[in-house]
């Protein structure tokens, strides 16, 4: 019995960590290429509404997840066009993407409010899911969870073991050097931003198809921003994003359990905890300037105008 | 075309290359040719059009008109990677390196191949041994000194077995001894039958290395010659088009009292990429020019900030200006003590590119000329008319050429902006002037104007500290020379007792030994 | 075809003035397309949205009421953004302004002193400023990213206000609804004219805009703000402290957001309740950019954004268009404003370009063909280089 409770807690942490992990991993690649996209929240909520509506239309939540990936990637290209082609300010443009995403998703999803969603069912991996303890823990969760874990490994391998990944890191370190060497800086960044958008879209789908299975306006409630903070916390390393996302998942779950068990603390304070934790983490990371400076992609947020 | 001689065509030739930027003709009908196995100099002042031509040859820019020939065949070089495919390699003046990546990763990024990272590292190691360019493939570039970084660029080029290697001002970051080593490598490459296009404004080097030279001025080729048949003076006048007024060295009059005094200044590195300052002591007296030589990145930037007050010291007495302890005072307080500062970086440090010249005057003068430039009431309101008047005085005094009455700083050419920034400080008649790289990237005319102004200031009884990488400049204007290496500063020695060789050894970090 | 940017020799003054209008026009075009896609008559919808509210006195007044907090907050943001400080937590500072401002009117309910209103306003400004001080000091002291910390504080402020109006300050006679007691008359910001919804907050907004405009344009402090925003290193060379500026800008911005909060609480709602957070802090970001970070421009921009809010309500009633459409408009507007700013510094050109550049390198070129490349001379290709450089 004890073990069963523990397993259910760990599973709920995984469920709450998965969207953070996905969005942060996508943003990590974007930032590694030297672009700061503050539109994660907007792309995520667009993914959530797209996932929900496609699932409703097709009756298949897997199509919903797929639709969220596409919508997230397409939506990110609006940002990409402005910051890469029109060389607009990345901070302001990212904010614009978030504001637009929140508004647009609210309008698109207006008819879905209150409708029951279609849950993406857990997928039991044959044989492995029958293993005691680790079976239910690791091998009978939803497909997006598996995708999130695979994605972190793939991103790590891509960035640090492939030449194209090296190119992404190079572009993020010095776009002028990369340009001088003939690396297509702008194209690399367009693709990185599309990847980040796709990941954020999938993260949103996880909210509207797995976590809550329904649509509520503004349902991302700051998760996109927490994902951004996680990238800083992880000092731009995929493995640390994984750790960070699960730590935050744990904080969220602890907060829910505290509320449910009737701890004599106002629920509003408990609900503030993940946000407070984010600020504390940001302060602790920033204090270690050496770590931050050594790892921050040097070109992050810098406008790039190739001379020609 | 039909009557072309039967001899082998040049490796690379340009015919009537023209490149227009807006209204400016950066290259105007440029014809030139490089033969195989030749070290060919491309000479010219800053802004003569050398860089534009080289970028066209390397595919970074496309010509507006004209044609490039490779082995006698007309070609168009659409991008740097096409240039590399042809067999053209380039070592940039400003390195195209990634500081956060390793040497091997930097090399791997510079060309397209199926080699794995470890194979790249292995090949780089072999090449570095063959050509006498030692390098550790696993080192982070951010930790390397300029000379080592240049080796990465050269090995990058050699990885692709090029027929033509272009080097843009390669010795500007090297000690004289490092430069000698580079020349050995270049001779070896030439002897293998490769061609080298050597861009420089250092005439002695060109005479030592090159058997042919093309001289550019205002975007045009003005002469082609064999530099060994010329004198440095004749080459210089071809480059500049006129005799440059030679600088009048101030008499070695006895120097006055100490105006700037630095005592045992030590400072930890503020960031992972910064250099720590180690026990620096220096005195600058009224009437003298002290030069601080050294390769960039050895603590000059940190030393400048410590002198200017952009970084503060906890012990006030480490820096004294006009007899006052100022180590703990910020730049505004130090300026009020009749001290002036000119940083190395013009845009984004000495001036804000997007702001008008008058605003950029206010930038450095609002504290020292508070009474004149501000209407002081409850709030300090900028006296725009007065600021403009001051700015115009500087513009006139320094002969700053500009296209509009009060243009943004970023719209000026490097030389004209530098004249403005220098003039902005000289206009105050400072008792102490600290200036970093006063003529970096400035054309010869403006450079001589600026150097003369520094000498005149010293002659009027001020102390001038010049931080410079340019040994020619240092030997031209300094009364005493100190050398900075790895955060140490040697004791200054009278310029008459210094030689280039000795400065070179000190620059390479033999400072403590020699000074002791 | 390929989009190419060409740097202007000097930035265009004409476009600097007209770019917000171009952005507005483009937003209207995009809006018309959106309405058409929703099956509504585009022109009629736009008229309902952006013209009808102007013809009706009640709507005109509502525009002023809505514009007031937007202008106040955006004027403060202009100081932050110009100095390079990304305060995007104005919504939280606005909420804290409302909360702190409500402190005396709620806790000393029934205190008849005429000092109550001025004190409430001062408390409101102090509350906003204090809340803005948190991300400011974290940035100045530790280098903590102010974008994320100020934004996280919005979520926390929402929870705190929610707790206060449901918990300690809840009106016992409120029939269970969250919210404090209604303020006594001496704590209420007077209306601009008898029985008006518009209150003196509007006067504060206009005074704030004029004062900040003068400070930015004419004073040494304004110069300091501009210099540090454009080049921190040059700012340090000028003897200005970026850390102190961060604190200053956040305090000014927080105080103005707080003033907006207490003005809204005291002038419009007349109590603190759980509906104070309407996203003004975020919409004000759009106002600040639409006004090109110029406080006088911000007055106009605030009115335009308020018009879109009122028009949105109008359109919902008249034609059943979702009131969320207003938010979409605002998002689009910010996109177009940012895009149009590019026009000030660059010329935009479409350039025909063959895709297979790499193939040509091995073919002999005649001079006349190579001159077909002329069109892109001196320009910046923005969509990446020709396919001559492959991704690998």
Question: Could you walk me through the main structural features you see in this protein, from its secondary elements to its overall organization?
Answer:
The complex is a heterotrimer of chains A (308), B (516) and C (392). Chain A has 308 residues and is mainly alpha-helical. Chain A is built from 13 helices and two strands, in the order H-H-H-H-E-H-E-H-H-H-H-H-H-H-H. Chain A has helices at residues 2-32, 40-58, 61-85, 90-108, 134-138, 143-161, 163-173, 175-180, 185-211, 223-233, 238-260, 267-287, 289-295; strands at residues 123-124, 140-141. In chain A, helix 3 (61-85) packs antiparallel against helix 9, helix 6 (143-161) packs across helix 7 (163-173) and helix 10 runs parallel beside helix 12 (267-287). The longest helix of chain A has 31 residues, at 2-32. The N and C termini of chain A lie far apart (69 Å). Chain B is built from 17 helices and 23 strands. The model of chain B has no long low-confidence stretch (mean pLDDT 88). In chain B, helix 3 crosses helix 5 and helix 11 packs across helix 13. In chain B, strands 13, 16, 19, 20, 21, 22 and 23 form a seven-stranded mixed β-sheet that branches. A six-stranded mixed β-sheet of chain B has the order 6-7-8-3-9-10, sandwiched between helices. Chain B has a four-stranded antiparallel β-sheet with strand order 2-1-4-5, with helices on one face. Chain B starts with 11 loop residues before the first strand and ends with a helix. With 516 residues, chain B is of the alpha/beta class. By secondary structure, chain C is mainly α. In chain C, 66% of the residues lie in helices and 4% in strands. Chain C has helices spanning 13-37, 42-50, 52-55, 57-82, 90-107, 116-142, 146-166, 201-218, 220-230, 232-237, 242-269, 280-290, 295-319, 325-345, 357-360, 367-370, and strands at residues 2-7, 346-351, 380-381. Chain C is globular. Residues 354-392 of chain C have low confidence and may be disordered.
In short:
The complex is a heterotrimer of chains A (308), B (516) and C (392). Chain A has 13 helices and 2 strands.
Distance between the termini of chain C: 24 Å
Low-confidence stretches of chain A: none
**What's the average pLDDT of chain A?**
90
Largest sheet of chain C: 3 strands, antiparallel
Shape type of chain A = globular
Name the biggest interface. Answer: A-C, 59 and 58 residues
Q: What structural category characterises the helix and strand content of chain A?
A: mainly alpha
Specify the helix fraction band of chain A: over 70%
Quaternary: heterotrimer
Q: Report the order of strands and helices of chain C.
A: EHHHHHHHHHHHHHHEHHE
Radius of gyration of chain A: 19 Å
Rg of chain C over CA atoms, rounded to whole Å, is 25 Å
Order of helices and strands of chain A: HHHHEHEHHHHHHHH
Q: Report the sheet with the most strands of chain A, covering strand number, pairing sense and barrel closure.
A: 2 strands, antiparallel
User: Roughly what fraction of the amino acids of chain C lie in strands?
Assistant: under 5%
Helix content of chain C: 55-70%
**Unreliable segments of chain C (pLDDT under 50, ≥5 consecutive)?**
354-392
- The SS-based structural class of chain C is mainly alpha
- Number of helices, counting only DSSP H or I runs of 4 residues or more of chain A: 13
**First CA to last CA of chain A: what distance?**
69 Å
**Counted beta strands of chain C:** 3
């Amino acid at each position: 019995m004890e073990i069963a409770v523990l397993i259910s807690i760990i599973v709920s942490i995984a469920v709450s960590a998965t969207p953070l992990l996905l969005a942060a991993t996508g943003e990590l690649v974007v930032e590694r290429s030297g672009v700061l996209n503050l539109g994660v929240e907007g792309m995520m909520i667009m993914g959530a509404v797209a996932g929900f509506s496609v699932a409703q239309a097709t009756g298949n939540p897997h199509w919903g997840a797929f639709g969220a990936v596409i919508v997230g990637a397409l939506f990110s290209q609006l940002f990409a066009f402005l910051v890469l082609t029109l060389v607009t300010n990345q901070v302001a443009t990212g904010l614009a993407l978030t504001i637009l995403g929140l508004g647009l998703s609210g309008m698109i999803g207006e008819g879905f409010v209150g409708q029951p969603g279609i849950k993406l069912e857990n997928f039991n991996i044959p044989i492995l899911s029958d293993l005691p303890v680790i079976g239910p823990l690791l091998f009978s969760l939803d497909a997006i969870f598996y995708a999130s874990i695979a994605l972190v490994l793939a991103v790590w391998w891509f960035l640090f073991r492939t030449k194209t990944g090296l190119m992404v890191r190079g572009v993020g370190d010095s776009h002028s050097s990369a340009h001088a060497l003939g690396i297509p800086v702008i194209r690399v960044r367009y693709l990185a931003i599309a990847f980040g958008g796709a990941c954020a879209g999938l993260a949103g789908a996880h909210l509207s198809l797995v976590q809550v299975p329904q649509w509520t306006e503004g349902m991302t409630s700051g998760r996109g921003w927490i994902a951004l903070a996680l990238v800083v916390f992880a000092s731009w390393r995929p493995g640390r994003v994984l750790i960070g996302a699960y730590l935050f998942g744990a904080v969220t779950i602890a907060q829910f359990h505290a509320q449910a068990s009737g701890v004599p603390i106002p629920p509003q304070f408990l609900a503030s905890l993940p946000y407070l934790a984010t600020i504390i983490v940001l302060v602790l990371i920033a204090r270690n300037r050496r770590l931050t400076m050594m790892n921050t992609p040097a070109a992050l947020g810098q406008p790039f105008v190739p001379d020609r | 075309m039909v009557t072309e001689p039967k001899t082998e065509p040049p490796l690379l030739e340009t015919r009537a290359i023209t490149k227009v930027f807006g209204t400016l003709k950066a290259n105007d009908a440029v014809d030139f040719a490089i033969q195989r196995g030749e070290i060919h100099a491309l000479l010219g002042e800053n802004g003569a059009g050398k860089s534009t031509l080289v970028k066209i040859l390397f595919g970074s820019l496309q010509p507006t008109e004209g044609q490039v020939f490779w082995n006698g065949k007309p070609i168009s070089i659409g991008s740097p990677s096409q240039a590399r495919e042809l067999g053209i390699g380039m070592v940039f003046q400003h390195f195209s390196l990634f500081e956060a990546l390793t040497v091997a990763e930097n090399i791997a990024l510079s060309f397209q191949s199926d080699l794995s990272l470890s194979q790249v590292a292995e090949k780089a190691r072999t090449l570095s041994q063959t050509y006498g360019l030692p390098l550790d493939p696993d080192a982070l570039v951010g930790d390397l000194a300029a000379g080592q970084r240049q080796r990465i660029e050269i090995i990058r080029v050699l990885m692709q077995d090029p027929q033509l290697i272009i080097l843009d001002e390669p010795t500007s970051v090297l000690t004289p001894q490092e430069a000698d080593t580079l020349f050995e490598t270049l001779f070896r490459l030439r002897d293998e039958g490769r061609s080298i296009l050597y861009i420089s404004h250092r005439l002695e080097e060109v005479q030592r290395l090159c058997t042919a030279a093309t001289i550019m001025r205002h975007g045009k080729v003005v002469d082609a010659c064999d530099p060994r048949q010329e004198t440095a003076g004749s080459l210089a006048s071809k480059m500049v088009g006129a005799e440059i007024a030679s600088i009048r060295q101030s008499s070695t009059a006895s120097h006055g009292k100490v105006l700037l005094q630095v005592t045992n200044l030590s400072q930890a590195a503020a960031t992972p990429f910064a250099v720590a300052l180690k026990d620096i002591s220096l005195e600058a007296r009224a009437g003298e020019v002290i030069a601080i030589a050294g390769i960039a990145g050895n603590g000059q930037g940190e030393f400048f900030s410590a002198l200017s007050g952009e970084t503060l010291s906890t012990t006030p007495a480490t820096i004294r200006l006009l007899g006052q302890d100022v180590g703990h005072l910020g730049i505004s307080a130090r300026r009020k003590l009749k001290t002036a500062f000119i940083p190395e970086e013009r845009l984004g440090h000495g001036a804000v590119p997007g702001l008008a010249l008058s605003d950029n005057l206010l930038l450095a003068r609002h504290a020292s000329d508070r009474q004149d430039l501000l209407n002081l009431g409850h709030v300090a309101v900028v006296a725009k008319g007065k600021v403009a008047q001051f700015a115009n005085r500087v513009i006139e005094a320094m002969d700053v050429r500009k296209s509009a009455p009060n243009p943004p700083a970023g719209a000026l050419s490097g030389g004209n902006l530098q004249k403005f920034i220098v003039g902005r400080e000289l206009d105050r008649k400072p008792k102490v002037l600290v200036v970093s790289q006063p003529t970096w990237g400035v054309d010869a005319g403006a450079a001589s104007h600026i150097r003369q102004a520094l000498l005149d200031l010293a002659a009027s009884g001020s102390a001038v500290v010049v931080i410079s990488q340019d040994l020619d400049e240092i030997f031209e204007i300094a009364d005493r020379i100190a050398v900075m290496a790895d955060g140490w500063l040697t004791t200054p020695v009278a310029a008459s007792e210094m030689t280039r060789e000795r400065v070179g050894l000190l620059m390479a970090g033999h400072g403590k030994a020699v000074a002791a | 075809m390929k989009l190419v940017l060409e740097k202007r020799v000097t930035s265009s003054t004409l476009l600097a003035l007209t770019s917000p209008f171009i952005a507005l026009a483009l937003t209207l075009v995009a809006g018309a397309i959106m309405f058409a896609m929703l099956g509504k008559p585009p022109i009629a919808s736009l008229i309902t949205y952006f013209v009808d509210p102007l013809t009706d006195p009640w709507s005109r007044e509502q525009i002023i009421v809505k514009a007031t907090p937007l202008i106040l907050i955006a004027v403060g943001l202009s100081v932050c953004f110009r100095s390079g400080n990304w305060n995007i937590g104005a919504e939280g500072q606005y909420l804290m302004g409302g909360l702190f401002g409500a402190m005396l009117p709620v806790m000393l309910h029934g205190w008849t002193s005429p000092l109550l209103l001025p004190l409430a306003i001062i408390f409101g400004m102090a509350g906003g400023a204090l809340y803005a001080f948190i991300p400011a000091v974290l940035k100045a002291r530790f280098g903590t990213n102010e974008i994320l910390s100020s934004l996280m504080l919005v979520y926390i402020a929402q929870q705190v206000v929610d707790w206060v109006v449901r918990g300690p300050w809840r009106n016992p006679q409120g029939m269970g609804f969250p919210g404090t007691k209604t303020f006594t008359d001496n704590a209420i910001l007077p209306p601009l004219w008898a029985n008006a919804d518009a209150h003196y907050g509007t006067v504060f907004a206009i005074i704030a805009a004029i004062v900040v405009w003068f400070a930015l344009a004419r004073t040494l402090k304004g110069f300091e703000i501009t210099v540090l925003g454009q080049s921190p290193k040059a700012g340090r060379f000028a003897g200005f402290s970026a850390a102190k500026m961060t604190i200053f800008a956040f305090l000014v911005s927080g105080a103005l957001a707080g003033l907006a909060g207490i003005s809204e609480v005291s002038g419009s709602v007349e109590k603190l309740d759980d509906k104070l957070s309407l996203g003004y802090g975020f919409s004000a970001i759009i106002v600040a950019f639409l006004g090109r970070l110029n406080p006088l421009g911000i007055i106009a921009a605030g009115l335009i954004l308020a018009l879109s809010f009122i028009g949105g309500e109008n359109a919902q009633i008249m034609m059943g268009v979702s009131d969320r459409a207003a938010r979409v408009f605002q998002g689009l507007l910010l996109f177009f404003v940012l895009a149009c700013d590019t026009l000030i510094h660059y010329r935009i050109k479409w350039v025909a370009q063959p895709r297979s550049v790499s193939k040509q390198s091995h073919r002999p070129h005649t001079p006349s063909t190579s001159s077909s490349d002329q069109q892109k001379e001196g320009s910046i290709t923005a969509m990446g280089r020709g396919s001559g450089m492959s991704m690998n």
